[in-house]
């Protein structure tokens, strides 16, 4: 492949890695950071930290279609610069916040202008050589996954030495570096004048397999919702399995990180296989495997068994969202990449917002383990949807 293409890929991969690293470096300590601003009750801490988490996804879901429209007119590189540039300031200022309301506002602003990882994926989808889309989408996923794995360790060490503000400030500086790195990339893009751009309604009407596209949006929503539904209760479940004895925070971190290790192990191979047999077959494999793995999690009796099952779940994860992105890449005209990927980002953000809410509700009414059964139902429904449209691709 051309040297310029490899350079662009490596730059965007590193940018996604830093974005994932910074996110996971700061979010685990959000509740503790908020707690440092005053004497809040447990209910208030849960509410404020949950709000600070969800407003970002809410803003993403609302504004992503607008940014997608602009991406198709101005290019994906500009959207990556917009996201990294604004995040440089919003994240850094979060480290300087003086009250919880400033944090919530900055998180809302961050969500409205974020999207580096998704726009980088759309960027590479447009630059990808023919026949390599699956491998490239899978490798782009490993960037943020690797960052998410390493982030809590770096964040924990930095927060322990310098306090909770420091990880946010360092993340802001790193995003500034990402902005400068992205500035050096070259995008092979021909701007489309606003007058010549088709309305989204016409774009969807012109798609030969628009039902497939809509089902991929639904898949993104359900997959992200299923993955995020477990987030609020992992540490609480681990505490229950350990009977409140031992280093619960450390063990919870390992259990939470296990899917990432599984994803890294097989992502590259699955990406190449996707290019050979087609993304929908790989997607169905991932969905049925995830369904089967969530069920035994309900019966997990120790952190070791839960961690092992989550490691296997990570392998299934590598077969899901990258497969959806590959389907979109090969099914959508190049001039509509930005808008289609942004709509997909909106559904992904909605899944990130609804997933924790559903997980918290189910665990409050029934038990922590019940979340796994509810999640398996959602994933199996998604499998049935994809199975019904498999011949459209």
Automatic annotation (TrEMBL):
<keyword id="KW-1003">Cell membrane</keyword>
<keyword id="KW-0812">Transmembrane</keyword>
<protein>
    <submittedName>
        <fullName>MFS family major facilitator transporter</fullName>
    </submittedName>
</protein>
<feature type="domain" description="Major facilitator superfamily (MFS) profile">
    <location>
        <begin position="8"/>
        <end position="393"/>
    </location>
</feature>
<feature type="transmembrane region" description="Helical">
    <location>
        <begin position="168"/>
        <end position="191"/>
    </location>
</feature>
<dbReference type="InterPro" id="IPR036259">
    <property type="entry name" value="MFS_trans_sf"/>
</dbReference>
<dbReference type="GO" id="GO:0022857">
    <property type="term" value="F:transmembrane transporter activity"/>
</dbReference>
<keyword id="KW-1133">Transmembrane helix</keyword>
<feature type="transmembrane region" description="Helical">
    <location>
        <begin position="372"/>
        <end position="389"/>
    </location>
</feature>
<feature type="transmembrane region" description="Helical">
    <location>
        <begin position="87"/>
        <end position="109"/>
    </location>
</feature>
<dbReference type="InterPro" id="IPR011701">
    <property type="entry name" value="MFS"/>
</dbReference>
<dbReference type="GO" id="GO:0005886">
    <property type="term" value="C:plasma membrane"/>
</dbReference>
<dbReference type="InterPro" id="IPR020846">
    <property type="entry name" value="MFS_dom"/>
</dbReference>
<feature type="transmembrane region" description="Helical">
    <location>
        <begin position="212"/>
        <end position="238"/>
    </location>
</feature>
<feature type="transmembrane region" description="Helical">
    <location>
        <begin position="282"/>
        <end position="299"/>
    </location>
</feature>
<dbReference type="Pfam" id="PF07690">
    <property type="entry name" value="MFS_1"/>
</dbReference>
<feature type="transmembrane region" description="Helical">
    <location>
        <begin position="250"/>
        <end position="270"/>
    </location>
</feature>
<feature type="transmembrane region" description="Helical">
    <location>
        <begin position="45"/>
        <end position="67"/>
    </location>
</feature>
<keyword id="KW-0472">Membrane</keyword>
<feature type="transmembrane region" description="Helical">
    <location>
        <begin position="311"/>
        <end position="334"/>
    </location>
</feature>
<keyword id="KW-0813">Transport</keyword>
<feature type="transmembrane region" description="Helical">
    <location>
        <begin position="12"/>
        <end position="33"/>
    </location>
</feature>
<feature type="transmembrane region" description="Helical">
    <location>
        <begin position="140"/>
        <end position="162"/>
    </location>
</feature>
